[in-house]
Design a protein that fits this description.
This protein is mostly beta strands and 327 residues long. The protein folds into three domains: 109 residues, Sandwich (Immunoglobulin-like); 89 residues; 105 residues, no CATH class. The chain has one helix and 25 strands. The strands form six sheets. Strands 10, 11, 12, 14 and 15 form a five-stranded mixed sheet that branches. Strands 16, 17, 18, 23 and 24 form a five-stranded antiparallel sheet that branches. It is flat.
Length: 327
Amino acid sequence: MVMRSSLLLLLLLAAAAPAAALSLSVLPAKPVEDAPFTLVASVNAACPVPASIVVTRGFPLSVVQVTFVEACSTPPQPRLVQIPLGPLTSGQWILRARFGSAQTELQTEIQRVPYRIELDPPAPLAGNPITLRFAGNGPCPEFFDPQRDGNLLTLHFDDNCPILPPGTAPFVIEQEIGPLPAGDYVVQVSTVNDHSLASHRFHVFAASECIPSDTALCLQRSRFRVSATWRTATAQGVAKVRPETADSGSLWFFLPDNLELLVKVLDACQNPDPKYWVFAAGLTDVEVDISVTDTATQTTRHYRNALGAPFAPVLDTAAFDCAPPNT
């Protein structure tokens, strides 16, 4: 009887509530590519929460669809809900929101970053050549020799062309900045007057380190490499990975939006029994072989699931020693 009364109350509140007003804005007002921004929704509701966020890339317009649901039954009032978005690629985007019968959209342009730094290869190896590509717009760009101060590399850039008529054009210039020893680095491009134009943080990998790829997940500062293979009755393959945090990542088999596994390597080295832990959870019943390798010791643990069996959670609290041998 109590449950029926509660349900009846919710239905009466929903019927009596006015149509939800809905409007959108973005912060900052001019978002740029490769940088997160915030979608702000003004909603006349009690406790609006985003139930789903779907990003569909297309041409000439791409779409972000946010669907809100009501999380409580208190009287509605104007609310501001902030939804972190991005980074998104540059171009025209439609930001759409739906809450019950109310829906609205906002068209916004994701601006191109004026200057961009890229490395080739993106995950360089110690002792190998590294090419920096600097892209932007200017009349006659030119680099001076790079300077290195510890792990900071600075390239001075000059686009002053007093001889040529005014005007700019897209450019890409390349500069060798390697080989470099393994470690973390920052490369910056500055004007001849030391005004910073762009910077880029990167890691140079030792041969023994985990090198990230679409099939290799690198966790705990690249000490651990996670990969997996899968098999069904009719197909098999290598799992694709998606980093989530410094110690966790997800894996998919068939479609990027259909996640199958979550794997986490936890640092429990401050415990009385110091170890690295390996946890894994799955939403699958296909055959799986997860490989977790400690690159410091080249020790590998395998976690397997049989075909047709629901994936059983992995809670290995004695997976790897904390200190490698001879340290």
